[in-house]
Structure formats: structure tokens, C-alpha cells
Amino acid sequence: MYRALQINKDDAGYRTELKDLDDSALPEGDVTVQVAWSTLNYKDGLAITGKGPVVRKFPLTPGIDLAGTVLESNHPCWKAGDKVVLNGWGVGETHSGCLAQKARLNGNWLVPLPAAFSERQAMAIGTAGYTAMLCVMALEKHGVKPSDGEILVTGANGGVGSVAIMLLAKLGYTVIASTGRPEEAPHLKALGAAGIIDRKELSEPGKPLGKERWAGVVDSVGSNTLANACATTKYAGAVAACGLAGGADFPSTVMPFILRGITLYGIDSVMAPIERRVEAWQRLARDLDIAKLEANTTEIGLQEAIDVAARLLEGKVRGRVVVDVN
Ligand code: NDP
After folding, report:
1. Residue 192: is it exposed, middle or buried by C-beta count within 10 angstroms (0-12/13-18/19+)?
2. Which residues of 277-295 are buried (b: 16+ CB within 10 A; e: fewer)?
3. What CATH code is carried by the domain that includes residue 138?
4. Which GO terms describe its molecular function (predicted)?
5. Cβ distance 192 to 218 under 8 Å?
6. What confidence tens digit (pLDDT) does each residue in 139-170 have?
7. Whole-angstrom Cα distance, residue 198 to residue 228?
8. What are the strands, taking DSSP E only, across the chain?
9. Cβ contact 157:184 at 8 Å
10. How many A from CA of 141 to the centre of ligand 1?
11. Residue closest by Cα to atom 44 of ligand 1
12. Sign, Cα dihedral of 138, 211, 188, 65
């Protein structure tokens, strides 16, 4: 038996409950993992509350991230006792997931837990933090350098935004954090933001082109925010778009692209190839300040995850949430 959240959708409606499940409830897979820690991401919030069409199979255990120890393996790369991390691949969407004490997975989805991190720290990073790293890597690959000017980070108090601030600041970039919670400015500055702007400056419909300000952008908000970020990115600058916390639309024009030569990078963590994941986790081990990560993290238990998921979607959770599943 193992304890897990389980989502059901039937005549009684859509609901998430804490349950004791038999091992027969585990899905197919060649590696069984004893979960130590999981976490809550925006997508987990959508799954647990049913506010977005994330879960496509019922009953299903939510949770797109885990850190834990291999219990049994029929996969050539993994053996009992190995410490592993899982992010995405449809786990917690179509394959029962990680907000549980046990998970059964495809061994091809796992990456080794970096020696630099405890299981709890890996989940304080989670998909949100690993996606922030993918965004930073995209800006770097584009050639954006600290001397090029300010980097805008939107959704600053969220998981992606807060980790992006920490990473960019440690790499020497000047970070401007856009937030709807100006009262959190001291926290954002402690993470490394050089300045704060009110997200209202970006969230209203704007002009096709605005004054050039950003050398690069990490955007987890989408909609008008992403359009305005593109319109105010400097000539030949780059925008890494990974989220839709403000909306999935993109009401932009071609102007920033054809008159300023800016580049818009789409960032996906879910199906990212294993080599890019390993690189991102190695970079996180090198470029993330662990003390700041801890200050950005709240700890909860499995049962609490149901309520916290709803608060996360309301934009009321700061930084990252780790879930002690045991
Ligand atoms: P969080 O809920 O932790 O953070 C989202 C933040 O966005 C909030 O904290 C808030 O920051 C801001 N925000 C919330 N609502 C609005 C709104 N209506 N308008 C403008 N800003 C808003 O989520 P995550 O950081 O986990 O994820 C952020 C986004 O990135 C989500 O859309 C998620 O689906 C996406 N994502 C995509 C991935 C990918 O692979 N492409 C992977 C991971 C996440 P503040 O209060 O500071 O304004």
C-alpha cells in the first residue's frame, strides 16, 4: 500500500482526494521509485483543481515532478538504490504521477539526482526551476550577455520567475522583475532583482512597438505581457516564452520581428530531450544559489497540496512549494 493523491471524474464530479492505494494502482513502467519529495507547479494546480484540461485519464495521481530512490528496475540504466529526478513527460497528465509515496515510470524519463542537491532541494527547483534554466540557456545561446542590458522576468513571484531571477542574477545579468505583488519587492530583491515593475505596465493591450528596453526576457505570463515584452525588446534581442499564467493568447504584431529582428524562443520542458535535461540540471547545480533557493521555498504535506493548489492558481503562493509525501 502507498499513500497518494488521486483524481477522479465521474457522476459525482471532478475531485482530488488523499487515498491509500494498492500497488496494483501503479501504472505500467520499468522502474518503480520510492518518492521522497514532490512539488507543486502551475500545471499541478490545474490538474488538482480541474481548472485546466491537464488530466486526460481517470483515476489518475497528479504530480509532474519527483525526487526519490529506485526500488525496482528492469531498465538497463537504473538499479535499486539509485537517486533519480523526474520532470514531465506527461506524468501527472496521462500517466499516474508523483504526488504519492510510490511511482512507476519509464526508465528513459529519469535523470540522475545531481550530487549538488538533496532530494528536497531538487524539488525546490522542480519543473518550474528546470524550465527557468531552459529559458536562461536559450538567452545565452542567442548570445545575450550581461553587458547588453536589462533582462525582464515576468511572473516574478512564481516558480519559474523566482528561479529565473536567482539564476540570471548569479550569472551577472541585471534583472527587472515584473510582479502583481509589489509588497514582495524585498523578497525579489533578495533573490537578485535589481528593480521591480508593476505587472499592470505590461498586462494592458499595448502598441506594436515601444521604447527599446530589454536585452532579453523570460516570460511565464503570456498574453498582452508577452506581446508588450516583445514590443519593448531591444534590437536583435531575445524573448524566451514558457508560460500562460496571464493567458494563452498572443496579441502581437510582426513589427518587433521584422523591424527590430528580435527572436521569440518557445520553451518546452515536458518533452525536452534527455540531453538538454541533463545539461539543465548540471547548470542548475553550478549556477543556483542554494541559500536563496531555500528562502524561496515553502514545505507542505500531501493533504495540504489540495488547498495549496487552488491558492497557487490564484497567484497567492510565493516562490516554490515542496511536498513531503511521507
Ligand atoms: P506560478 O503559479 O508559481 O507562478 C505564476 C506567476 O505568474 C504568479 O506567481 C504571478 O506572479 C503571475 N501571475 C499569475 N496570474 C497572473 C495574471 N493573471 N496575469 C499576470 N501575471 C500573473 O506558476 P509556475 O511558475 O509554476 O508556472 C508559470 C507558467 O509557466 C505557467 O503558465 C506554467 O504552465 C508555465 N510553465 C511552462 C512550462 C513549459 O514547459 N513550457 C514548464 C513550467 C511552467 P506575480 O504575483 O509576481 O505577478
Report:
1. buried
2. beebbebbbeebeeebbee
3. 3.40.50.720
4. acryloyl-CoA reductase (NADPH) activity
5. no
6. 999 999 999 999 999 999 999 999 999 999 99
7. 13
8. 2-10, 13-21, 31-40, 65-73, 83-87, 102-105, 111-112, 150-153, 174-179, 195-198, 214-219, 233-241, 263-266, 297-301, 320-324
9. yes
10. 23
11. 128
12. negative
Write the ipTM: 0.99
Q: How many angstroms separate the alpha carbon of residue 244 from the centre of ligand 1?
A: 7
268 CB less than 6 Å from ligand 1? yes
Domain that holds residue 197: 126-266
For residue 102, is it within any domain?
A: yes
Nearest-angstrom CA–CA distance, 275 and 211: 38
- Which residue puts its alpha carbon closest to atom 43 of ligand 1? 128
207: helix, coil or strand? coil
Choose among 280, 275, 281: nearest CA to 138. Answer: 280
| Ligand 1 atom closest to 160 (CA) | 25
Total-model pTM: 0.97
Q: How many domains does the structure of the chain reveal?
A: 2
What digits encode the pLDDT tens for the residues 177-214? 999 999 999 999 999 999 999 999 999 999 999 999 99
Q: Give every CB contact of residue 149 below 8 A, 6+ residues apart in sequence.
A: 174, 213, 214, 215, 234
Coil, strand or helix: which one is 50? coil
Report the half-sphere exposure of 127 (CA within 13 A, side-chain side).
28
The SS3 of residue 193 is coil
The verdict on 76 and 181 lying in the same domain is: no
State the CB neighbour count (10 A cutoff) for residue 20. 11
